[in-house]
Structure formats: C-alpha cells, structure tokens
Amino acid sequence: DVQLVESGGGSVQPGGSLRPSCTATGFTFEDVHAAWYRQAPGRRCELVSAFYRDGDTYYSRSVKGRFTISRDNDKRRVYLQMNNLKSEDTALYYCASIIGASAYWGQGTQVTVS
Questions:
Q1: 88 phi and psi, to 5 degrees?
Q2: Spatial distance between the Cα atoms of 60 and 65, rounded to a whole number of angstroms
Q3: CA gap 62, 31 in Å, rounded
Q4: Could you tell me if 9 and 18 are in contact, meaning their C-beta atoms sit under 8 angstroms apart?
Q5: pLDDT (tens digit per residue) in 54-98
Q6: Chain centroid, CA 30 distance in Å
Q7: CA–CA separation, 58 and 61 (whole Å)
Q8: Buried residues in 13-52 as b, exposed as e (16+ CB within 10 A)
C-alpha cells in the first residue's frame, strides 16, 4: 500500500527550529514530486514547499529563506528544515505526493510556534 507518514512536528518558541519528516511506504520519491502543505485554523490549505522530479524546488514567499526541503539518499524520506520559526508558521503540516493519476496525503504533523 502507498502511504505517507509525517513526524517531527512539535512546539517551539519564535526563532526556533524544527525538522519534520515524511516517510514513504509502497513507493520512493525518486520519480515523483513531493510537497509540504500546511493549514492553520480558519485558513486555506497553503503549498509551503515542493521538491520536483528534476531536482528543482519551490518555496512560498512566506517561508523562502527560512525553510529548506530535502530528500534522503534512499529517496524514502523528505524533510522540511524550518528555521527562524514565527507564530504565523503555526499549522498542521502535511506531506503530499502525486503518483500517476492519484494524489496521496499524510495525516499531518502539528507545528506550534508560541
């Protein structure tokens, strides 16, 4: 079965860092895109960062320069290094990937900055 599982969220003070990870089972990230989304209460789901098949990356304006997306050599984990966290980064963070015609999402990991 294809599955994405996030971990590594938590609570930090402003200015702190976290490094959530997304572990894939049933496939690897070698030939698919991987992305991190987030959703805060009362707000729309937002694309935060993406790692594309060709190695290119994307960052939203709000996190550029503070967050870094990366992938393990075994292509089974994707990380989101989050530095200089701000209160507005508080949200449930989801990992997602598209395989063929199907989109897969993890269950999310909570990040709280206060």
A1: -75, -5
A2: 10
A3: 27
A4: yes
A5: 889 999 999 999 999 998 878 789 999 999 999 999 999 999 998
A6: 16
A7: 10
A8: eeeeebebbbebeebebeebbbbbbbeeeeeeeeebbbbe
Amino acid present at 107: Q
Phi-psi map region of 106: left, alpha, beta (phi>0 left; psi -120 to 50 alpha):
beta
Instruction: Mention every residue, 6+ apart, whose C-beta is less than 8 A from residue 54.
Output: none
Q: Over 90: is that where the pLDDT of 5 sits?
A: yes
Q: What is the CA radius of gyration of the chain?
A: 13
51: tokens are 């790692």
Spatial CB neighbours of 60, under 8 Å, sequence gap ≥ 6 = 46, 47, 48, 49
pLDDT by residue (tens digit) across 24-45?
998 888 878 899 999 999 999 9
